[in-house]
TrEMBL record:
It comes from Cinara cedri. This is Acyl-CoA desaturase. The chain crosses the membrane at residues 12-31, 43-62, 74-96, 159-176, 182-205. The lineage of its organism: Eukaryota, Metazoa, Ecdysozoa, Arthropoda, Hexapoda. GO terms for molecular function: iron ion binding; stearoyl-CoA 9-desaturase activity. InterPro entries: Acyl-CoA_DS.
């Protein structure tokens, strides 16, 4: 394990800072125009697009591809890939690669969003600074063979340069063509404002352990009033221990939330299968195994993962509850 105190100096990348400033000022103007000029239909349409993109990011990029929490039908994969393309943050392949690197070196200088450097670094500054000197080499060391075998991911990576502007043009012109929204409104709201909101949703994911996570051994953080404002819990830490559990929410929750509900509905529709999860009893047994044998807890837990076939025969909308 690398010494966390050894800080690697990183330079600010001013062109990126200027790009984010430009994006945020345009988004603020978009917000103003949305309140003062835009049609209600445009607002509703933008909310739907944001929802589809966040769903593609959380249930798709994060749980399906980065952590293989379940398997999905090709129709659903295409839908999620298109939703992720609308986020405008590069291909899904690159997102998964960076997220796996983040997990592999979590909390060290090799982690691109190193939480030990504080909230501002994990949330924002990492994007505006130069990477770790060995970043490219480290990315090559990440195992992504599974997603390289998914033709939909390979296709999106190859044609991202064409697919992204094409989809952006389509979603910007829909309001102007279908309900006579002005082009400037559409560009500023559906384009700039939406992309900026999604950027922050993605950044939250990289710093979730700081926003929602409790400090180690701190069951209930009474030192901070934050516990009353945001739902502080140990679930973000749990995600770094068992990233393949499909019930782990990105926003500090477990077994509930809009995106987990979507996954269960898709399971009910037979669009996804092989959901991976574990119950409290399994975790308890794995901990006993780890303590008595000295084995890594991650390996012990694999033994007690709930059988996906057992999950399949239960009521699909309540998949995590298994009869004892
Ligand atoms: Zn993750």
């Amino acid at each position: 394990m690398e010494n966390n105190d050894t800080r690697i100096p990183r330079e600010i990348q001013w062109p990126i800072v200027l790009y984010y400033l430009y994006l945020h000022f345009s988004a603020l103007f978009g917000l103003h125009i949305m309140i003062t000029e835009a049609k209600w239909t445009t607002l509703f349409y933008t909310i739907c697009l944001v929802h589809i993109s966040v769903l593609s990011l959380t249930a798709g990029a994060h749980r399906l591809w980065a952590h293989a929490c379940f398997k999905a039908h090709a129709i659903l994969r295409v839908f999620l890939v298109l939703g992720q393309t609308l986020i405008c943050q590069g291909s899904l392949y690159d997102w998964v690669l960076e997220h796996r690197l983040h997990h592999k070196y979590f909390g060290t200088e090799k982690d691109p969003f190193n939480a030990n450097r504080g909230f501002l670094f994990a949330y924002l500054k990492n994007k505006m600074m130069t990477n770790h000197p060995d970043h490219e080499k480290l990315l090559k060391s990440v195992d992504v063979k599974d997603i390289e075998q998914d033709p939909i991911i390979v296709w999106q990576k190859r044609f991202y340069w064409l697919l992204n502007p094409l989809l952006m043009a389509v979603i910007v012109f829909i309001p102007t063509e279908l309900w006579n929204e002005s082009l400037i409104c559409s560009i500023l709201i559906v384009g700039f404002l939406r992309v900026t909101i999604l950027l922050h949703c993605s950044w939250i994911l990289n710093s979730a352990s700081i926003i929602w996570g409790l400090d180690p051994l701190n069951k209930y953080s009474i030192q901070t009033n934050l516990v009353f404002i945001v739902n502080k819990s140990l679930w973000p830490q749990y995600h770094y221990l068992l990233p393949w559990d499909y019930q782990s929410g990105e926003f500090g929750n477990y077994n509930k939330g809009c995106y987990t509900a979507h996954i269960r509905v898709w399971a009910a529709l037979r669009l996804i299968t092989d959901l991976r999860t574990i119950d409290t009893d399994g975790i308890r047994k794995a901990m006993v195994d780890a303590a008595s044998t000295g084995q890594d807890i991650k390996q012990c837990v694999e033994k007690y993962t709930l059988d996906p076939n057992l999950l399949k025969i239960k009521c699909e909308l309540d998949l995590e509850r298994i009869p004892y």
